Every structure is written in C-alpha cells, then in structure tokens.
C-alpha cells in the first residue's frame, strides 16, 4: 500500500478529559503532542459525549447509538448482544480489532447461568475486540503483575497503589493531591498501556485496528513524579461556582441532592474526605494533579505517535483521539461526571487522516459545527470503505476532514443522563419517582441549553448571557416561548432518532425493500 492511504486505525480514548484541557485550546495545561497531532490533523472544538458515566458513554462511542436506543444507561446495565459495533463492522473488512485498556461493557445475561463470572463485573469487553491487555478501575492483572516484578508491593486493596501517601513531603502546604502514587512514571498504568501500544506497533505486520484506552486523568487525582509538581496550585484558577453551596442548590432539586451526595466522605474515587467543601488550596492542588495526569497521558501518546513514525506507519494510520466524558473539577461545587453541565460532557476530538484528501483541513479547527461521540463509528467505517449500518445514530465527519462544508448538519447536540439507583432506590424514594422517570435529556446549541426531566422541573440557560449556566430561566414568563420551542425540538429529535429496528425495511409481494438513508 502506498503512503497517504489508510492501512491502520488507532482509536485512542482517555477517561474523564475536559475539552478545554488542551494547550492548543488556550489552556494552561501542556499537551504538546496532542497539539502537534491537531496541527497535522483536524480538531473539533464543539464535540460532546452522549451519556454518562463511563460504560454507557463508551457504548455510544463504539455502537454509534444514543442511550435512548442502546439502553446501556449505567455501569452494570447489560448491553444487548444483538447490536453491532465498530469492532464487528471492522472485522468485515478483514481487521482483527485489538483492545488495550477497557470498554466497560456489561455482558448480555440472556442465555447465561447466574454463576457466569461475566455477570459479576461491569468491566466486560465490547464484542468484536480481541483483548491485548485489560487495565480498568475493576481489573488490572497485567499491570499489577508488572508492578510486582518491578519490586513494587501492592496493598491489600491493590487499587490503593494509585493513591498518594499523607506523609509525602509538602502535602501539608500544597494539599493531599500533591503526593504521588506508589509508583514512578515509568511504571504507571498510563505508561503500561503506552508500552503495550508501542510493542504492538513495532511487531505487527498486517493492517491493524487498535483501540487504546488510557484510564487517566480519571481519579484518584494523584500524578506520579514529576507530574505531581508540574503545575503550581497557586497558578491554578478556582472553579466557577455560586458563592455558597446553598446558593448553588437553589438551581434545581436534582442539583440539590447531588451536592448533598458530593459532601459524603469517599464519594470521589480515591479521596476519602468531603471534596465539596475542601479549602481553596486543596481544590487548586486537585486541579493541578488533574492537569499533571493529562500531561502524563500526552507524553505517553507522544511515544506512541513517534513509534508510528519510526516504523514508517504514520502516513498509513488513521489516528483518532477523544474521551468518554469529561469532569466537573469543582465547577458548581461538583466533582466527577454527572448531569447537565458542559463540564461533564464537552470532550476533545482530534482526527489525523493520512490521506491526501485530508490535506485541505490540516491544522484547522471545526468551530462552527457540533459533533457527537456517535459520529466516530460512521467516520471510521466511511473512511475504510465500509457500509455504515442503519443502527448508527451518528454521521460521518469525512466532509470536515476533507475541508468541505456539509450540505446538512445538526444545529445542536444532545445527551442523556440516567440517574436511577437500582441498588438502593435512593433517588427514586427521594423524588417519589419510578426508576424510568430518573432521566434527564439535554439539548444544547450556541444560544440555549434546555434540560428536560421526565418528572422533575426543566432547566433553561441563556448561554450567550450566562455561559457558566448559573441562572435557570425555565420559570421566567419571558422565556416560556423559548422553553416550548426547545422542548419541541427535543421531541422532534427523539422521534427522528428513535431506534429504527427494521422500520427501514418492508416485505412486499415483489420482495424485500431495504432502504438506506440518512437521518439528516
């Protein structure tokens, strides 16, 4: 195969990476390797995930389905085995997709015994991927084995190795998150995944499809040396939030309970204290640690990309970098990913297409069009000459990559969040809801964000006047028309994108009609 043709596919996802956290986007965090990739590819600045948390968002990415269609709505909710996905479709083109990292795909329990070990974990693998090595927040045997071989003793709870020690010098002044975890940068889970990707690229000779998944900057927010000290917390801005938690809680009943939950000790993974009410210097240090973890991932990505160049594969490899979802990072007094705020759902997307047709967009950014995680699968399939299944809710980004404007495109983005609590039934009882009523759906364009709850009050934000989403206008009589208009747009979206099933087919006396058409 000649250069500048797609032979290989490298799909990289990070976990919990905010869209604004790229130096090429003007942020203080240093991401030189992703900046170089963007300069040689195309960056999408208005890219959003489809749902939360990790498992459901990855399912939308890998199946090109909205949550209302795939129904994998929480970590642990089974995924219907009948759906196709990017790995299964790539196999039809002769690829053997391999996974380094995780997909958090719970198994379909139908036809399985209750004692099947796959039904004891949400950290399953999306069907169609061959496993190179699993490293997730539930399972990391290969990585832990390497740590032991390096003489790094694991604690009884093995994942506690990722948490920094309270007695690390400087933590009292700078904050607990200044402490590095129990390993150096050469032995981190980030370096481990990069090592696996580098080894694969060096030795595999056939056309390949690799899905590399980095767990960071997912918490715990403890970066290995020297990344723990890379950003001075004094230089880190505090989160944007209301003057008090009580004032923030006035916005909505859901936010009120979320902020109550946030104050519980240990609510934020790896941090045993109440992260909501920390003193400012601790908050700044946690944010600094988050940025350090991002720079660590960027450095390791640089190694992977350099290996592609050293082995002569860079100009035959389609490279995609994105994240599953984002991170509140203290904004609105919240940590983690939840709900309707952009901080949880606005994510990065960079695509480097080696074809000459993509030269027209190299180094540019897509600023005027909204893109969604469901667009990744159709894009990859389109670029390798595969038919995009009618299951897909997303649309190929090929036109943008080739420097063209689409004839039709979405004017807004949508995402969903299912906050049911099947284990404890806590939110159902608190709000007197059924589990199926514990759902919010968001529509967001350049002007407004409208949040529709199945059985709780709605929210409306004027993003031009209130980009930080502080003032709910849904009850303002002067905005009733706007609420109605966006509620109607959301209804139209749901009608247009409801699962097709086989509705695009019809059996007739002349034979089967099978129409292939776009939703836009």
Automatic annotation (TrEMBL):
SUPFAM superfamilies: Alkaline phosphatase-like. Residues 7-385 form the Sulfatase N-terminal domain. Coiled coil: none annotated. CDD domains: PMH. Pfam families: Sulfatase (PF00884). It comes from the Bacteria. PANTHER family: IDURONATE 2-SULFATASE. This is Alkaline phosphatase family protein.
